[in-house]
Design goal:
InterPro entries: NAD(P)-bd_dom_sf, Sacchrp_dh_NADP-bd. Pfam families: Sacchrp_dh_NADP (PF03435). This is Short subunit dehydrogenase-like uncharacterized protein. The protein is of the alpha/beta class. It contains 15 helices and 17 strands. It has two domains: 156 residues, NAD(P)-binding Rossmann-like Domain (Rossmann fold), CATH 3.40.50; 193 residues, 2-Layer Sandwich (Dihydrodipicolinate Reductase, domain 2). Helices cover 40% and strands 24% of the residues. The strands form three sheets. A seven-stranded parallel β-sheet has the order 3-2-1-4-5-6-15, sandwiched between helices. Helix 5 runs parallel beside helix 9. The chain is globular.
Length: 370
């Protein structure tokens, strides 16, 4: 039997290199790929792996590059530019599509193609990294314990320092403002609209509302009508975030966006090797139905290391043919709610009866633009 082949597109970026290292550590031999031939070839020669270079917007070149590839893992951003054309290519070549996207809008665009992908007999699983493997699996576990849950809160914390690509994606998304899911619909909310304390395993921390991929994936994984997502941060940073939020539309003006991108390029380098090796990521989720609550916590390695381990584990499952069905799937739909707990260095705990701490004052909200 011919060995099944997989490809990492965007191998030479910060996260891409970590994914390559994880694959090599497990004795896997992915095809390395990306836009820039020199960068891809240099990394492939260093790793002793095959390589290909092609732009995502050249359909003929992309089709030729993926013709014999069974699974594509897309690491290259911005995903607003790479996701749709590479998914198109995968549907033409019969290649399973996975990505490390965390942009709510782009994840939503992928799920909007659910029927199309299923009709083609394809498989697409977006967000198979830190966004949103731990939170999606944790949400599925707590909701399994509380059928008919009406509300779901999800929060993340831990040691985090963004890579250059992540920082650019954050700047790109900031002008859209905040988001939440209310009555089954995505609605716009102000930046940093809510603040609450989250009882992480390491202690209580202040957390603020942020857009997170679960605002889309939870609609398919658990179907809870009201979902709010949070990130832990110091109160001083929350104040700055709110102040910036009042100027958020300015961030989308092209000259301003160019300046911000240049600042990111010059100042952001990503987490240090020490932080990658010693840092921890924490997630917390709570499902509510009336006055009943089920709470879960997840602990794992630093976010970028977690991303690399989760992504390669997801690829291995697709290559092994264990995906539950075709179509666009969340991680928990594809591999089961227990998937996150099987990743090296990760642990999950689910228990009932914890105090809810739900905010009592609703935030201003308006329907999100289509």
């Amino acid at each position: 039997m011919t060995a099944r082949k997989w490809m990492i597109y965007g191998c030479n970026g910060y996260t891409g290199r970590l994914v390559v290292e994880q694959a090599r550590r497990l004795g896997l031999t992915p095809v390395l790929a990306g836009r820039r031939q020199e960068a891809v070839r240099s990394l492939a020669d260093e790793a002793g792996l095959p390589w290909r270079a092609f732009p995502v917007d050249d359909a003929a070149a992309a089709d030729a590059a993926l013709a014999d590839i069974d699974v594509l893992l897309v690491v290259a951003g911005p995903f607003s530019a790479t996701s749709a054309p590479l998914l198109d290519t995968c549907l033409r070549t019969g290649t399973a599509y996975l990505d490390l996207n965390g942009d709510v809008e782009v994840i939503g665009a992928t799920f909007a193609r659910r029927d199309e992908v299923a009709a083609a007999g394809g498989v697409a699983i977006p967000a198979v990294g830190f966004d949103v493997v731990p939170s999606d699996c944790l949400a599925a576990l707590v909701c399994e314990r509380l059928p008919g849950a009406e509300r779901l809160d999800i929060a993340w914390g831990g040691d985090f320092q963004p890579s250059r690509g992540t920082a650019r994606s954050m700047v790109e998304a900031f002008p859209r403002g905040g988001l939440a899911r209310r009555d089954g619909r995505l609605v716009s909310i102000p930046v940093a609209a809510r603040v609450r304390e989250i009882p992480f395993p390491t202690g209580d921390r202040h957390a603020v509302t942020v857009p997170w991929g679960d605002l889309v994936t939870s609609a398919f994984s658990v179907g809870v009508p009201d979902v709010t997502t949070y990130a832990a941060m110091p109160r001083s940073a929350i104040g700055g975030m709110r102040a910036a939020g009042r100027l958020r539309r300015l961030f989308g003006v092209r000259p301003v966006a160019r300046v911000l991108d240049a600042i990111v390029a010059k100042t952001v380098t990503g987490p240090s090797a020490e932080l990658i090796g010693t840092g921890r990521a924490w997630f917390w989720a709570q499902a509510a139905r009336g006055d009943e609550y089920v709470t879960g916590t997840f602990g794992g390695p630093e976010g970028y290391l977690l991303t690399a381990r989760a992504a390669v584990a997801a690829v291995q499952r697709v290559l092994a043919g264990t995906v539950r069905r075709t179509g666009v799937l969340t991680v928990s739909e594809a591999f089961g709610a227990e998937f996150a707990a099987t990743i090296e260095g990760c642990a999950v705990r689910v228990h009932a009866g914890e105090s809810a701490l739900w905010p009592t004052v609703p935030e201003p909200a308006s329907p999100a633009p289509a």
